[in-house]
Request: fold
Amino acid sequence: MKLQNKIAVVTGGAQGIGAAIATCFAQEGATVAIADLNTDGALERELTQRGCKALTVRMDVASENSVNDAFAEIERRCGPVDILVNNAGIGTPVKSIVDTTPEEWDRTLRINLTGSLMCTRAVLRSMIPRRTGNILNISSNVGKRGVPLRSAYVASKWGLEGLTQTAALELAQYGIRCNALLPGNVDTPHLAEVVQMHADAEGMSFDAFTGMLKSLSPMNRYVELEEIGKVALFLVSQDSSAMTGQLVNVSAGWIMH
Reply:
């Protein structure tokens, strides 16, 4: 039980990568707040049926009021937060730079980057006085390389990695660590949607584009959700106690720097 008695918040935690991380943390003893626009409670029920501790809290990371209200509710119900995972994000639009509107650009950065900043600010109000805490930002393999038709998404992830390392430098004096996990292509319904948009834009079939993506990895495959959860657990546990400001690739070998 590496996270026994810890309070963890996972934004965008109701599905996909967020749900995998929330599940892994709950199984290691954490009380996990699933912070999401989706509040159907399905993951909370699944985890509590397994004997884990979880709660569902509505959070719109694009709204500062929603972020602050959600953290206030979590602290009221559970106590001060020990671990924050900034996972909530969007992958669209899939458009060339000349076709991407300022409104689409702003929305992507508001959710993927500014949302992480606002959640970090909210949780630091209790972490700094206690001089303890752990922040994990979920970036992307495209945080280390450009990708055609994804300018807004790529820029948001490069920015998130800059935020990660700046936070690590500012917060080390308080005993707070901040790292980023950079997934490659993870087998989720969201990836399937993005792949279809890429395939349509580039005049390829879904299967052909999928095969091309997998071939970019020396392992010739997608990353599995559980593999992301296990690395996330390592980065927020004492197993990685000497690590902060690190950008950790989990890309099946696609990115090696």
Summary: The chain has a mean pLDDT of 97.
